[in-house]
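Lecture 7, part B: from sequences to assemblies.

Below are the input chains for today's worked example.
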Amino acid sequence: MANQALTLVASLNLALKQEMAKDKTVVLYGEDVGFEGGVFRVTEGLQKLYGKDRCFDVPLAEAGIIGTAIGMAINGMKPVVEMQFDGFFMEGVPQMVDHASRMRNRSRGAFSVPMVVRMPFAGGIKALEHHSESMEAFFGHIPGLKVVVPSTPFDAKGMMISAIRDPDPVIFLEPKRLYRAFKQEVPEEEYFVPLGKASLIQDGTDVTLFAYGSMVRECQKAAIEAQKMGISCMVVDLRSISPLDRDAILYAAEKTGRVVIAQEAARTFGTAAEISMIIYEHLYGKLKTPVERVTGFDIAMPLLKGEDMYLVDSFRILEGIKKVMGKA
Amino acid sequence: MFLEKYTDKLNTDMVQILTPEGVLDENLRPKEFTDEIVLELYKKMVFCRMCSDRALKMQRSGRMGTFTSVEGQEALQIATEFAIKKQDWVVPAFRELAVMWAHGVPMENIYQYWIGNEMGSRPPQGVHVLPVSIPVGSQMLHGVGLSWAAKLQGKDEIAVNYFGDGATSEGDFHEAMNFAGVFKTPTIFICQNNQFAISTPRAIQTASKTIAQKALGYGFPGVLVDGNDLFAMYAVTKEAEQRARKGDGPTLIEAYTYRFGDHSSSDDATKYREKSEVEAWRPKDPMKRLQVYLGKKGLWNEKIEEDMRAKFQVEVDAITEKAIAMPVQTVDEIFDYTYAELPPALAEQKAYLKTMLAKKAALRPQAEGEPQRATAIKEEGGTNG
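Predicted structure of the full complex, as structure tokens:
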């Protein structure tokens, strides 16, 4: 079968379409996902293809969406539900934290919750308040949940298939500024990108850059600039916040001995802090310089006119690279 | 017949078939309720109250953690369970000892849970009872999802949600009722209005005259029923069950009852409730009216009650011993069910804990013989219900 050049949105759509064809227990629902195909059109055309019993609109209630999906998942379905925006997920988070994440443990394996909660993730599209949130560290802190973030169309399809087949609840964060940012060859046939495994975007020898979601692209841009200065960067896409791919983190950090972590979320208690600590615990004394975190700030994401000030960009990442190279 | 009659308007009438005095409205008697069945259900109620009382005693003597007594709510739980099928789902909150047991969870497992081991929440294969749900009102959505999934897959299963009056103030209650109404899921909502959420009286939960009438706002029937009347609770639930099975959608049943006990073993209701109020409810105890009713049929007297209790006492003792003898959690158990497959970092944490516990154990002087294990309580005489 031929590959097609697809955007991240189209790749997700393809993954959902194919999984629905293979498995009749896969149902898609959320706010405006049925008739309209979602505000970002990730589920476009699927209601037409599979009918209103498989892809449908529901009342505007996030706890209702997640809570019913828990029941559905316990009783043999594979619900893939959408949170229209990351900020609105907060209305449904109690169901995720109190129940979805714990049901397997609470019932000692009698009941499990194989569901996927998808949502557009993080900033960069100059949207309204509560439309640009980065709360992955919070979700990563919850035992029993998996939290993943694809950064390419290829990974998006492979990770979505893995998420749907996963026996545990998966929070699937879709970097909204990458939805239509670029196209990539995506195979028509089924393939899996394992959850919990990082990906090496490019190899390098001087500095290791860790990122996920849209920050991967910013790191790639910074790496190109660094190259012009004679600095060779390794770029690692974590892809999974929970579980973290510790082996990959340690391998990549040790290889160059210098680490810059890019994180759009607020700085304190963020994913970068956890990665830094993993590196500290295992590679103490082996790094050439302290780990550098390039992050968002401990403030609310500003409204659109102030968004660019907040966002981590390749410029700030490059400054971080220069700092760990002693060239700042 | 009840749904139609009682739900068209903001009706505050309460369905009652067997009065507190033991007088039956023969016209409304459910046809399934032969004398033998009524006696059988009564026995179940007595057994559950004894089990609940025993659990409280176990808590008082340090053999169980916090426990929530079911005293006073046995009739509605046993009746509603009798109205559904084995394959139907029971979705409890945390005061549902009777319905959980009646629907297939062994009593020793229920004890095991309250003693403090998650293994007690693993029901036997094929028993459709979800574990106890502690965050008030959050479990009803699961019942809607369970029954919705059954509907979508063409399975002959319905779900019954159990919750209290306090739960109706939670947003998740609203969302569960709303989803159930919109998608006509085969769900029954049993609100056990026992008049209190810990110390907060029913009047502070809602300004609506009845909880039952809230169903009108979601487009399906809501019925106020005497929750201490086994006959009425069965009759109305049966009708709701048939309605759900036919595909006509959900029903809300407000079971008007009273929490005779404290909220939990950590609570002292005398601080916020007049003794006279509790005493006023005592004559409405669901057991009493059945005793009068069965007495008239020659199926109940003090002697029969005594014999029944003596027999149950032996069973409750055996269950207590069995539950207490159950092993506590292993390190593997507390880690291994977090995910289907243990992630490497968790495997490492588990190994670390094992090492630490072994080190700690090595430092402790080894006690002779068996590790400390509480022995079962044997009571002098019978408990009283």
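Note for the exam: The first strand of chain B starts at residue 89 and ends at 91. Keep this in mind when comparing with the next example.
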